[in-house]
Every structure is written in structure tokens, then in C-alpha cells.
Amino acid sequence: MMKVPFLDLRITDETEKRLLLDAVERVFDHGRLVMGPELNELEEKFAACCRRKYAVGVSSGSDALFHSLRSLGIGPDDEVITTSLSWIATANAIAMTGATPVFADIDDDLNISPQSAARLITPQTRAIVPVHYTGKICRIDEIAAIAAQHSLFVVEDAAQAFKASFKGQPVGSFGDVASFSMNPMKVFAACGEAGCIVTDDPAVYDKLVSLRYNGTVNRETCIMPGLNGRMDTLQAAILLIRLERLNALIEKRRLIADWYNELLADVVTTPVERDDCRDVYYTYTIQADDRDNLADFLTSREIETKIQHPILMPDQPAYAHKVKGEFKNAARIVNRILSIPANEKITRQQVEYAAQCIREFYG
Ligand SMILES: *Cc1c(COP(=O)(O)O)cnc(C)c1O
Fold this sequence. Notes:
By secondary structure, the chain is an alpha/beta fold.
């Protein structure tokens, strides 16, 4: 047996550790612990990566999504269409503005079905929040076309997909606003909580800057109610170091995905990358018959797996009592998904072992 961890968040690379500690020390030395120079530098680089004019660093991906929606004026009496399958933060951000989340079905790629989203549009609909789930870019061109036709905003929940691209255009460059998470599990990860928002609209940018600091301008005048949600300078400093090696990390994940595809495609449903897309594999998620027994079997072989996410957002107790939407395909698929170890630290040998155990399970 061979242990195959789903994730390993320890910093084991001595070079990386040294660079991070030096960056932390620089922040200790200048003392600007909030809104320090590293945050500005990160925001500039982040915006450039997304080919956007502006980026606003915030304290988490949840915060990023909530502020994104508020910056567009979304609130009570509005409906916002999103996917059924995501981390609950997506629906919560919508609900916390006072708007009603409306849950669209998913396609076999685990992403929002544009056709389903179109069917759910009503006179109350103000925005669509597609998620690039698992780091796989959704059918963003179709979503954007539907939104344009009905004068709706598009807010990309790109929490799992920084640096993914479609026809060479990066995630985050498609919506009116896009939000990102850099929590420690994400491919582009801080050493704690962090998030970011990008946009091209100067008025939206001003609102976002205000929203992340109690709805104030010039620190003292409050123009709208808000909470404090700024990114720590320390996290920005850490992210600047990690941005340098991000492409290599993504390449490793894409390589691992290739290995699994080749070893598993005939026994389970493996993720399919569309021709014009470059996915980043936040998770490598298969769809499998007899999923729960497969997961137990892999656990017994010391292969750590995760079901991300086991409960559809519309089925969560917080939403189930007054749910709006349609999610027939999602209800079927949610019982088949399983994410297997694909973090950048695992080796070809571990991938072969995991694949061999999956094949063994299916006899
Ligand atoms: C991680 C994640 C979030 C929330 O980000 P946090 O930084 O954990 O608050 C939102 N949406 C999706 C799809 C995510 O994966």
C-alpha cells in the first residue's frame, strides 16, 4: 500500500519556504500590516493576469462574491441565477445581498447548463453567477450571450479557476465582475484566507474599494452600509511569491490529469477538456458507478478522496424550504462525483497506484 493524500498543505520545499519567510519579514519590517505596498502590487498583477483594468483584494472568496454582487446594486426583490452544484458560498453570497438565488441545472461537465439558465429568466432576474467548477471553464460564451440578450449582469465565480482560459482569454475577463478565492485549498493559495475581485468599470471599482472598508470613502465618510473585508498585507506578500511558480503548478496538475485520463477513461467518466479551453484542475473529479463503495474501497487502500460537494446547494436545509430552479441532471450526477488526489505534490507512481486501485474495484 502507498499513502496518497488528497492535499498536503505543509510547505516542504525549502526554497519556497525561504522566499515566503523573507517576504513575511519584509512586511514585519515596514509595518504596514493592512493595505501595505504588497497589496497594490498583487492587485496590479492580478488584474493583468485577468486582462482587467482593476483588481480589489479582499479577505476571502465569499467576501469577493458578496461584494461583487453588491457593487452591481443587486439586492432584495432581485433574482440571481446560479448553478446547483457548487460550494455553498456561491448561493450564500447571493442570499446575503437579500436577493433570491435561482438554481439552474448542470451539464455533464459539472458546470451550469446555459439552456437551463435561460429557461429560469423572469422579469426579476438581474444577474447570472456561473461557477467555473473544478477549475474547468463553463460555457461562458453562451452564458454571456444569454445575459446580453436579457440585459443581465454576469458575475463569474472564478474561485476555483484562476488562470484557466477559453480561446486564449483568461477566466475573470468575461463577466462584468469576477471573483476569486485564494484560500489554502485553491491552486493559487494564500497561507490563510484571501480573495480578489476584478472589473473594467471604474464606478464598480470605486464601489468595491468602499465596500471592503465599511462602505466608506476616504476612511471616514460612510456612503453605504458595509463590513470590513480587506486582505492582509501578509497574505498579499505570500501570494506575490506564489504567483511566480503558479504556472508550473498548473502544468503539473494538467500533467496529472493527463495521466489519470489515460489510465482511467475506460472504467469511469473522466473530465473532458474542450478543444479551446485550458482547465486548471482545482480538483480532478470523476463520475463513477457505485461511488460510495468505490470511495470506501479507496480509503481502505490509503487513497484519500473527497466528494465535492455531496449536497446540491438547493438541497441544503438553508434553501430547500423555498427553493427556486431546476436540477434534475445535477441530482443524478451529485451521487456519482468523486474527486481523487491530483495535487501538485503527488508522483506518477502514486497516480498509477490510485488508478490501479480504481480498476481493481471495478474488477
Ligand atoms: C472556495 C470557493 C468559494 C469561497 O471562497 P472562500 O475563500 O473559501 O471564502 C466560493 N465559490 C467557490 C466555487 C469556491 O470553490
